[in-house]
Design brief:
The complex is a heterodimer of chains A (432) and B (368).
Chain A (H helix, E strand, L loop, with lengths): L1 E5 L7 E3 L3 H16 L2 H17 L1 H4 L4 H7 L2 H12 L9 E2 L4 E7 L2 E5 L7 H10 L4 E5 L2 H15 L2 E4 L2 E4 H6 L1 E5 L5 H10 L2 E5 L2 H8 L8 E5 L3 E6 L1 H4 L4 H13 L9 E7 L5 H13 L3 H4 L5 H16 L4 E3 L7 E5 L12 E7 L13 E7 L3 H14 L3 E3 L16 H4 L1 E7 L5
Parallel strand pairs in A: 5-6, 5-10, 6-9, 10-11, 12-13, 12-17, 13-16, 15-16, 17-18
Antiparallel strand pairs in A: 1-2, 1-9, 3-4, 4-19, 7-8, 14-15
Helix pairs in contact in A: 2-4, 12-13
Chain B lengths: L4 H10 L7 H22 L1 H9 L16 E2 L2 H4 L10 E7 L8 E6 H19 L4 E6 L13 H9 L3 E6 L1 E4 L2 E4 L1 H10 L4 E7 H14 L8 E7 L3 H5 L4 H11 L7 E5 L9 E2 L6 E2 L4 E6 L13 E7 L10 E12 L9 E8 L15
Parallel strand pairs in B: 1-15, 4-5, 4-8, 8-9, 9-10
Antiparallel strand pairs in B: 2-3, 6-7, 10-11, 12-16, 13-14, 14-15, 15-16
Helix pairs in contact in B: 1-2, 2-3, 8-10
The chains are: A alpha/beta (432), B alpha/beta (368).
Chain lengths: 432, 368
């Protein structure tokens, strides 16, 4: 059984046995986006950003302030320019040379499997589908559906005037359907997959593999945002510089945001040997963990994750060359050792900190599953050289402390919106 | 003269298992545990690390809840021996159900004797003074000493100490459990008037024994029966079988009442202690043990009816860290000293195992 939370702009829960009606309505409604000037779409979304931050019922929700910043016109234009080069492609054929012109057409219906770990994920995914003029059917986790619905309701109420015509956010929302269904239901999953002109899949290994195994239309494009891992690296000069403490403070915030459940959440921080011992660095971090606002410090954590944290703490307490710094509760955990390796993520603000001889020791740890490396190297040339080698080996993003979760593009090594459109060509007849 | 902790332990094991009020018990257990922890630190550098890094000396421990609990998983990764190595007589290996890694529980002669005494004390409270015929709802191979210890073997071996004769009601045929009909026929023809006790793994009782015995329309009518069962309810819950329905149906097979079908909770790492349901459906903590329910986030002890992680404390072992073991099971304390069944001490209920979480997102792993 499929529960549809949003259809044709109406936020009413309805049950369906297949996607026929949902797909027909979404497909029909996306035509309005196609005819809407791209600048209007940017205008409606940036107005939403301003509106969200002014609404006290919404702006207190975790992640809304970041969404609001992300929706600034300048940021949206930058993201679109990175993806499309020229946003005019979304509205018309743009001459490339005398022989042909190009345009970007939406793929159609983008079916999105949204993971549960990041409450804001559904919004960013839908915003990109809007910015590529696609219709969306998003499978949202039940626990996050109210959050995303609240944001889209705000969008519904927005209107702007452009060249004498009034354009409404409601039309953007009408091109979106939100659904929930049991992911293990093979038949419903199969139907959902077959509905898609483009699939966007977020999740862990198991979810990704099972979704990729579903049948799909031959023309269907698939974007996978699969399991990834992030860590941080600090070189000796940086550690001994005046920047270090602020960087540590920001790293602690990076760890705390999303309760360390995101692919961009650092799981290990490597510190090159310096004048500070690992214990001293751990104690500095302790201070920043203690200063976290309550909403970040105490986040709901699954008992299985808590049990895992308890186990990791005890393993480090029993071992000879490892130690821990912890509060009495499980709000955060620092695990210290000198073993230069990556560790299985524990989540729940359980950070491994490690002292290493040289920052180049981490090169051999890099796999294609590494998303973000928070890179703190004092010398800019050395930083670029490190980034070049790290990205060659598999790292997708090299970031600064406090910015690991910034939803930049490219992401996971791809320019998503560039792939949400079909690049079409209009050839000119040669002049005789 | 102040009694030695060893003397106190022997006294404890000789008393009726549920006779001490909780406060009295805590006062008796604390010095024994402190003493055992001193030995643990002296004999095991890992445990010495553990206490040293916590900046904790056993002498400073003023309350049982301040004894640092050891997560049960640590038996898989560390040697948690607390006595000199030459005192270890055997190492109990318990097969893991989730990770596949084996727990290692080192046992000395003293520990084994204490565990047997403790279990006898508990069973005596439920079965009376006399040994009984023991019916095992499993196959005989489950008790093969060459095999690794599992929850099933733990139950069979543990409960058999009260048996005057053991009968296995199932046998293995092509890897499947089927009724051991010759044994069942012998029981029906020769032992119907006997006092018996029965043990089986909950899911095996329901999914194989019950179905097959019902098909054959077999009913027992012993003089007195107690049916002990243990193991998870998850699969039965999935089949929508309630505890009450299970008890009624199994009682009907054995010609007895629902109140004689007794679920118990236990673990290989705390052999010697089983927490058996009383007639009110509560699990009771014997004199030589304690149960603390801890909030999984604050790790503070929970109040009555607050669900948390079950920590089992015991003084039975001088050979491994049994003094405080934090399980990955959730439960809640129902009360202290005032269960209508009359048993003293803490009484609690098991709720569920903590299931391994599937990380529902992208922050997964670095391995390709």
């Amino acid at each position: 059984m499929i529960t549809c939370h949003l259809l044709n702009g109406e936020f009413v829960d309805r049950e369906f046995s297949d996607f026929t009606v949902i797909a027909d309505v979404t497909n029909c409604n996306r035509r309005v986006l196609q005819e809407m000037p791209f600048d209007v779409i940017i205008g409606l979304l940036s107005k939403l950003g301003r509106k969200l931050i002014q609404n006290p019922d919404i702006n207190s929700l975790q992640g809304v302030s970041y969404i609001s910043i992300w929706l600034r016109r300048k940021n949206l234009e930058r993201i679109c320019k990175t993806n499309y080069g020229d946003c005019t492609y979304l509205d018309t054929f743009v001459p490339v040379d005398n022989h042909f012109a190009m345009a970007a057409q939406p793929r159609g219906i983008v079916c999105q499997w949204i993971a549960a770990n990041i409450p804001t994920l559904a919004f960013f995914s839908l915003a990109q589908a809007i910015l590529s003029k696609n219709g969306s059917i998003a499978k949202v986790p039940e626990e996050n559906s109210a959050f995303i619905a609240a944001l889209l309701k705000e969008l519904s109420d927005i209107a702007i005037s452009y060249n004498g015509t009034t354009y409404r956010g409601e039309d953007l929302v009408k091109a979106i359907s939100l659904v929930s269904f049991e992911g293990r239901n093979a038949e419903v999953s199969r139907m959902f997959s077959l509905t898609a002109d483009c699939k966007v899949v977020y999740g862990g290994s198991e979810a990704i593999r099972s979704i990729l195994a579903l049948p799909q239309k031959e023309h269907c494009e698939t974007l996978v945002f699969g399991p990834k891992y992030s860590f941080g690296v600090f070189d000796r000069e940086y550690i001994e510089s005046e920047r270090f403490e602020k960087a540590l403070e920001n790293s602690v915030k990076d760890i705390a945001i999303f309760n360390q459940m995101a692919c961009s959440s650092p799981q290990v921080l490597f510190f090159e040997k310096s004048k500070y011992s690992l214990e001293e660095i751990g104690l500095m971090m302790k201070g920043y963990f203690e200063q976290l606002p309550q909403v970040l410090r105490h986040q709901g954590t699954d008992p299985a994750i808590l049990a895992n944290i308890i186990n990791m703490r005890s393993r480090y307490l029993l071992s000879d060359h490892q130690n821990i710094i912890t509060p009495p509760d499980l709000s955060w955990t620092i695990l210290m050792d000198t073993n230069p390796r990556l560790e299985d993520p524990v989540h729940g603000k359980c950070i491994f900190i490690k002292e290493i001889e040289s920052i180049t020791d981490v090169f051999n740890l890099i796999t294609r599953k590494i998303q973000a490396v928070t890179l703190c190297i004092r010398d800019e040339e050395k930083r670029r050289a490190f980034a070049r080698e790290a990205t060659y080996r598999g790292v997708d993003r090299v970031v600064i402390p406090g910015a690991t979760h910034d939803y930049d593009q490219p992401w996971d090594g791809i320019l998503p919106m560039n792939r949400l459109v079909r690049w079409v060509i209009l050839k000119n007849e040669h002049e005789v | 003269m102040t009694p030695t902790p060893a003397g106190d332990l022997n006294d404890l094991l000789q008393q009726p298992a549920y006779s001490l009020l909780d406060d009295e018990k805590n006062q008796v257990l604390l010095p024994i545990i402190r003493n055992q922890l001193d030995c643990a630190i002296a004999n095991n550098h890992c445990l010495a690390n553990f206490f040293s890094k916590l900046h904790l000396s056993p002498d400073e421990i003023q309350r049982l809840e301040d004894v640092p609990p050891m997560p049960v998983q640590m038996f898989k990764y560390f040697d948690l021996r607390t006595c000199p190595e030459d005192q270890i007589e055997k190492v109990l290996r318990s097969s893991g159900t989730t990770t596949g890694i084996t727990s290692r529980v080192p046992l000395s002669k003293n520990t084994t004797i204490n565990q047997i005494k403790a279990l006898k004390g508990i069973l005596k409270d439920y079965l009376g003074e006399k040994r009984r015929i023991f019916l095992v709802i499993d196959h005989e191979g489950i008790n093969n000493p060459m095999l690794e210890f599992s929850a099933r073997t733990a139950g069979v071996r543990g409960l058999s100490i009260y048996a005057k004769r053991v009968f296995y009601l199932m046998r293995e045929e092509d890897g499947k459990l089927v009724l051991n009909l010759p044994v069942i026929e012998e029981l029906l023809s020769r032992y119907q008037g006997e006092e018996v006790y029965v043990f089986g793994f909950t899911y095996i009782i329901w999914s194989t024994f019950y179905n097959q015995i019902r098909e054959k329309n077999i009913r027992f009518s012993f003089k007195d029966v107690k049916v002990f069962h243990s193991g998870g309810w998850k699969k039965l819950k999935a089949d929508q079988v309630s505890k009450e329905h299970f008890s009624d149906e199994i009682a009907r097979i054995f010609g007895t009442g629902r109140e004689t079908v007794l679920d118990f909770y236990g673990m290989a790492e705390q052999t010697g202690i089983i927490f058996v349901d009383c007639e009110c459906g509560n699990k009771h903590v014997p004199n030589f043990a304690q149960v603390i329910i801890r909030d999984p986030y604050t790790l503070e002890p929970c109040g009555n009816n607050e669900v948390g992680m079950i920590e089992v404390m015991s003084v039975l072992s001088d050979s491994y860290y049994c003094q405080a073991i934090l399980t990955e099971d959730m439960g809640y304390r129902v009360g202290i000293d005032d269960c209508p069944c009359g048993r003293k001490g803490v009484y609690f209920r098991f709720q569920s195992r903590i299931e391994k979480v599937e990380i529902r997102g992208c922050g997964d792993t670095f391995r390709e």
